[in-house]
């Protein structure tokens, strides 16, 4: 049975999409694509199923060789609580998102870590929405760094 990781951010159009794509690539490079199922979703009141992935997200992923499908869209976790219920571990971008997740019965008792905590650090990953392309690049690189540092921990808990 594969381990199920859910990556959460506010709208599921930038940070969690980047983290999902980067984690999938890290796992594939290590021959672990079948060992870990990765999903992502948004938890904020304004998260909507099918919202478009940010163009800047697509661009900064393309720069590192990851092409998002044209029909890629956001997932609203308020409407898809089964994803929270199915998760073995939940990764969030901010402490605020962890607090928001605590309101969902499906998240009770599950390990919920910020990406920086996964990497053995403190702090949040800032939202790049409405920021420059360079801000998106820095966000992508920070997410990639945290996932690389935290991957052994993520796999050890399985």
Task: Summarize this entry quickly.
This protein is of the alpha/beta class. The protein contains six helices and four strands.
Structural account:
With 158 residues, the protein is α/β, with parallel strands linked by helices. The protein has one domain (3-150): Response regulator (Rossmann fold, 3-Layer(aba) Sandwich), CATH 3.40.50. 41% of the residues lie in helices and 13% in strands. It has 6 helices and 4 strands, in the order βαβααβαβαα. It has helices spanning 15-29, 55-62, 81-86, 95-101, 115-118, 133-156; strands spanning 3-9, 36-42, 89-92, 112-114. The chain has a 4-stranded parallel β-sheet. Strand 1 (3-9), helix 1 (15-29) and strand 2 (36-42) form a beta-alpha-beta unit. Helix 1 (15-29) packs across helix 6 (133-156) and helix 2 packs across helix 6. The longest helix has 24 residues, at 133-156. The termini are close together. The model has no long low-confidence stretch (mean pLDDT 95).
